[in-house]
Amino acid sequence: MSELESLLKRYTIYSVIIIGSLILGAFFISDATFLAGMAVGAIFSLVNLYSTYFQVKRLTSSVMDSKVRFSFGTIGRMIVVLLALLIAEEFPQYLDLTGVIIGLALKYAILMIDPIFYLRTRSTG
Fold first, then answer.
1. Burial tier of 25 (Cβ tally within 10 Å: 0-12, 13-18, 19+)
2. pLDDT tens digits, residue range 31-82?
3. pTM attached to this predicted model
4. How far is the CA of 20 from the CAs of 3, 14, 39, in angstroms?
5. What's the rounded Cα separation, in Å, for the pair 11 and 54?
């Protein structure tokens, strides 16, 4: 397993745990729209993470092959974000827009926090 695949696997595990926690939390509080919005934003953030992963793989192979390939990378991820925001706007009784935005930023929080845990486990084990 390459380093990139290992990172993707770790980030996916973190995201799934957080999304599951948010969904469970949404069932147990009275005003669940914020947590449900965060869960939806986190799901779309995970989709963007996979999009980035495949974009990096494609870019790596195009450099190795010396071929230019067109892709929707950034535009595709922007469309995913817009789709998440449109869904939150369409269903405000179920999803809080602020929660969706925070959920979309979840990927970046994981990217910043992960090296701390990774270095800690690497130094102890």
1. middle
2. 899 999 999 999 999 999 999 999 988 888 888 888 877 777 889 999 999 9
3. 0.85
4. 26, 10, 8
5. 14
